[in-house]
Write a structure and sequence with these properties.
Blueprint lengths: L9 H15 L2 H4 L2 H10 L9 H11 L3 E5 L5 H9 L2 E5 L16 H8 L6 H16 L4 H16 L2 E4 L2 E4 L2 H4 L2 H9 L4 E4 L2 H5 L11 E5 L2 H6 L1 H15 L1
Parallel strand pairs: 1-2, 3-6, 5-6
Antiparallel strand pairs: 3-4
Length: about 240
Amino acid sequence: MQQEYDKYTSEDHQVWSILYNRMMEILPKYATKSYLNGMGQVGFESHRIPDFKECNVKLMEITGWTIYAVPGLIANKGFFEHLMRKEFPATTWLRKMSQLEYLEEPDMFHDVFGHIPLLSNPSFAKFLEELAKISLKHIDNEWAIELVSRLYWYTVEFGLIEEEGALKVYGAGILSSSGETQYSIDSDIPKRLPYDIQTIFDTPYIKDKYQEQYFVIDSYEQLYTSIPEIEKLLEAALNVSA
C-alpha cells in the first residue's frame, strides 16, 4: 500500500503538530542523542506529517533502511520479513483530535515519530535486522516468538540507555508518550536493571500500564554485539521447553 499523502486533512496535520510539539517540549532533556539527531536527519517537521517518500530517500542514504507502509498491525512473519529487508512497517493512519490523550492501537505517530529517527543509528539498525533473522528461524515456534517479543519490548519499545552519565530514553513506546517519558526517568517506582538477555526472557511484558521495570543498555553497540548471545540463550530456552 501507499501512504497517499495528499489525503491527509488539515486536522491530521494539526494532530501531528500538537503531538510533535508536546513531545519536543520534553525530549531534549530525556531522549538519547541518536534519536534527537535522527529527527533532523530524516527531516521531521513540527507543522506537517512526514512524507514517507521524502524520509526514505534520507534514511536510505544513512543506513539503507526505509519506511514500509502497512494498514495496521501485521502478522509476526511479515513483520520480521520486513525488518530483515531493512523495511520498518508503519501504519499511515493518525489518531483523531478526540484521541490525543489515549489510543489503544499504535498509530502513525507511534510508528513513525517513535521508531524512525533511531533507524539512523547504524548499530541499532543492524540489531533490528539481525534480531529479525533470528526470529524468522523460529517463526513457527510460539515460545520462541514470545521470548523475542519480550526482548523487542524491553529494548526497541521500552529501552533506556546510559549516556554521558545520565539515563536517556531510546524506546519508541516511551518516546511517543509524554507521561511515560518522564515516568521512566524521574519516577522512583519502576526498577531500572542492566541489560541482561536471560532476565528479559524471564520477564513478561505488560501493555495496560506504565512498565514496572526498564532495562538499561550501555550503548547501541552493546545491543548489536549481544546478537550471538541472544541466539544462544534462545536455543537453550527452546531445548529446555522441548
